[in-house]
Amino acid sequence: MITPSVNGTRINFMATCLCDSFYSDVAKAAYQVLEHVGCEIDFPEGQTCCGQPAHNAGDWKNARKVVKHNLDTFAGDAPVIIPSGSCAAMNRHGAMLCMEEDSRLEEAKGLASRSWELCEFLVESLGVETWPGTFRKKVALHRSCHTRGTKSYESAVKLLSAINGLELVEVGELDQCCGFGGTFCVSFPNVSKKMGQLKIQHLIEKIPDVVASLDMACMLHFGGMMDRQKITTPRMHVSQILLAALESTRKGGSV
Amino acid sequence: MKLQQDIDIFAEEIDPEVRESVYGTSKLKISKRADILSKDFEDANVVRKMAGLVKQHTIENLPKYLAQAEESFTRNGVVVHWAADGEEANQIVLDIMKKRNARKVVKSKSMVTEETHLVPFLEKNGMEAVETDLGEYIVQIDGDTPSHIVTPIIHKNRRQVGRSFEREGLGPYSEDPETLTNMARVHLRQKYLDADVGITGANFVVAESGRIAIVTNEGNARFSMAATKTHIAMVGIEKLVPRDEDLGLMLSILSRSSTGQRITVYTQFISGPKVEAQEEGPEEMHVIFLDNGRSDVLASDCREILRCIRCGACLNTCPVYRQTSGHAYRAVYPGPVGSVLSPLINRHGFAPLADLPKASSLCGACQEVCPVNIPIPDLLVRLRNKGKTEEAERASINTPGFGVWAMAASSPSIWKSGLTMGNALNWVPKALLSVEPSARSWQKTRDLPEFKGGDFRAWLKERKRGKQ
Question: Which of A225, B84, B183, B358 has the least C-beta neighbours within 10 A?
């Protein structure tokens, strides 16, 4: 895993395919959060997906096609900011793996050094320490597996803790995966379901008002399970909480 | 073609009692591991990485260190043997026994002898072979196989052990662990005294000194080698470390990672047969170096797996292992390390175990706890690519194709029209979506959120227009 070193406020926003197709509100929130901290944001129109689904499934030939498309789409020197730990991990690590015998490996390394998960970028690159506004809710924050080895989770905790009224509740077995794992969740549906069930139990154990994640991929899976089981605890991406807090200051009221 | 992955079927059908044993014990071990590491080291990651570097250096210079080890052992009066595969290794053991007219073997715990199926081989050849590790002994009397590389009966509870001991005539039924352990102790003591040959593995083999290190909590390795006239240690060629002083680092991280102990109850350092001044001890010592596919692994792009020191932490932390147990993996080495190693050293080739690398959510928990920092998730993905490239059927079960997706995801215009047309998904009855196997698998336990393709892009366009 390459730790990104390229900083700056002129950035490329990579919305991720999941936000592009399902979770548009998350992309909108992340975009507005980046606007708030003073970023000049480019959204390359040609963007699609990071390539991770094929990479993790072991179809490196098809993964490389998509990675190369990304090398073109996100060419240049600007940092690439991604509201997902998993897609960031693909840019920062996975892409180099499937490209290791490709002539464009150096470009992949370049993209790795410029790719940031949103919260880690805010805290580690821009040095954001506090967050304005109020969000009077108990939040259970899921630690997405693909933020291992990065400072994303700690960054998100720092930002959320700074919000007035927000209380982070303890989540058991934080280091355990929710069972999504890309195609794993359909290749091994029973194992995935059992992992998801445990994760949901831990996330709602302390009766939070909101279940939050740094990654909509995890939430697509365990959220889908929650919906099926009629567990109605609201779910938000961290950027949506940051935006809600921001909006509370604009309204002059509190949430 | 099969419709369901065997490991997934196993998870569905697993006895809840077995699942509870495996889950509870592995969870407990991982929390003990974390406690002791954070208590004893400022940053345990530094220790893991250092140990990883030592092992990486060793396997990258393996021919050199193996030659040095042979020289050191010979100097110490140890007979060194080389076995290309399990059959050859087993045959070497049998030949040594025949030469000494030996008939009875006591054996301490060793994964490598599980790999070569040594005990059944010896029994078939008229020898009596007794496992002396308590867990392995229970596995042996039950005709079972180990389901974990450190705690072989992690899948059993004390009631099952009590019933087995009662059946074997070790004593009346009990479910008190201490009573059960005492029964086994009385039974096994006589076996040590009667045995002609003691067989052990080794946790580490030091090249510079010709010394092997064995750790146990029961002291059975010590009995197995000290009470008999002949000591045979069978070891994988990757077990080497260069220097005696490397043991300090390796032993510190091994037991902490494995069982959450600072050090195991017994640690043996053995550098040869007994010398004249010693009254007791083995008159002969043999070391059998086993390759069994390891040279091929060393030549592959998964060589880092040879760093493994068999602590079992990756099994204990793995959410898939916790839900399925080691037996689901159909191999001597289960869990994350086994999913890499087992298909690579399988005597019937990669294809029959090509599903193992797929049985992971790639969550990375295994690498995070690995005492030698093996990038297990990377190796799993490499093997998935191998399975795909070699068209292994077991790797493809329930994995959707990515051809059409890759075409769309590398063509912005197709992608964008897909986003718009995808909205039709919201109007398609769920039953129709379930025709495609992956979609059906998804929908069995999960709802799909509303499709909002293109919504963000439209919003962004509006927002930019508003700001101009």
Answer: B84
What type of residue sits at position B144? Answer: D
Question: Which pLDDT tens digit goes with each residue over B316-332?
Answer: 999 999 999 999 999 99
> pLDDT 10s per residue in chain A (255 long)?
889 999 999 999 999 999 999 999 999 999 999 999 999 999 999 999 999 999 999 999 999 999 999 999 999 999 999 999 999 999 999 999 999 999 999 999 999 999 999 999 999 999 999 999 999 999 999 999 999 999 999 999 999 999 999 999 999 999 999 999 999 999 999 999 999 999 999 999 999 999 999 999 999 999 999 999 999 999 999 999 999 999 999 875 544
A180 contact B CB<8A: yes
Cβ atoms within 10 A of the Cβ of B461, count?
A: 12
> B442 and A224: CB-CB below 8 Å?
yes
Domains of chain A: 10-125 (no CATH), 138-251 (3.40.50)
- Residue B262: count other Cβ atoms within 10 Å of its Cβ: 11
**A221/B446 Cβ within 8 A:** yes
Domain limits at B337?
6-13+306-396
Chain A residues near residue B438 by CB distance under 8 angstroms: 183, 186
Q: For residues B254 and B259, give the distance between their C-alpha atoms in angstroms, rounded to a whole number.
A: 9
Q: Please give the C-alpha separations between residue B279 and each of A242, B192, B229, B319, in angstroms, as whole numbers.
A: 75, 17, 12, 51
Q: Which member of A19, A58, A194 has the closest CB to residue B388? A: A58
Task: Name chain B contacts of A63, Cβ cutoff 8 Å.
Answer: 402, 406
Distance from CA of residue A244 to its chain's centroid?
Answer: 17
Tell whether A65 is within 8 A of chain B (Cβ).
yes
Q: Are residues B444 and B311 in the same domain?
A: no
- How many CA atoms, within 13 angstroms, populate the side-chain half-sphere of residue B150? 26
Smallest CA–CA separation between B285 and chain A, in Å? 45
